[in-house]
Write a structure and sequence with these properties.
The chain crosses the membrane at residues 28-54, 74-96. Keywords: Membrane, Transmembrane, Transmembrane helix. Pfam families: PgaD (PF13994). This is Poly-beta-1,6-N-acetyl-D-glucosamine biosynthesis protein PgaD. The structure is a single chain. The chain has 157 residues and is mainly alpha-helical. Among the domains are: 22-55; 68-100, no CATH class; 123-153, no CATH class. The protein is 55% helix and 10% strand. The strands form 2 sheets. Strands 1-2 form a two-stranded antiparallel sheet. Strand 1 and strand 2 form a beta hairpin. The chain is elongated, with a radius of gyration of 30 Å. The two termini are 34 Å apart.
Length: 157
């Protein structure tokens, strides 16, 4: 009658540390995921095609490449050349900025906040603030007015 609640901590259906899965299994599931995303986008293809035709995609193709059923050689050569030039310009600009700002911290350094100030802002005792800063994973216990009154440190496995 009273179904046992599965223990979430040891529930085998939940993957907590994906790096502990075998590489082949992770890779296989990655390909399965990519295949289903591809199928999902394939289902959207008719709508995208219809919108493209409604917005003049076919007309643009005809005007650029097949005006009066002839291929314009200037456009066929000029568009890829412009694409390559724009790409090279963008990459050059990005590399210039990467070299210009490499190794420079552009942010102003911030002063550390004291434990007393943290305790005051949280409405907690300085001892509790010290415990909170020393713990890696903790559960914070609050009173009815949402002020911290204690904590329980969690073990990480």
């Amino acid at each position: 009658m009273n179904a046992a609640k599965p223990n979430r901590r040891y529930d085998s259906r939940l993957i907590r540390k994906t790096r502990q899965q075998p590489r082949l299994q992770r890779t296989a599931w990655g390909f399965v995921t990519i295949a289903f995303w591809g199928f999902y986008f394939y289902l959207w293809a008719p709508l995208i095609t219809a919108l493209s035709w409604l917005l003049g995609g076919r007309l643009a193709f005809l005007q650029l490449y097949e005006y009066k059923q002839k291929v314009d050689p200037f456009i066929v050569i000029a568009l890829p050349v412009m694409l390559v030039c724009c790409s090279l310009l963008l990459i050059t600009w990005a590399e210039y900025n990467r070299m210009r700002f490499a190794g420079k911290d552009r942010r102003n350094p911030r002063q550390d906040v004291s434990l007393e100030e943290i305790a005051h802002n949280l409405g907690a005792t300085p001892a509790l603030a010290q415990q909170l800063s020393a713990g890696k994973s903790v559960t914070l216990h609050m009173d009815d007015h949402a002020r911290p009154i204690g904590l329980t440190e969690q073990r990480l496995e």
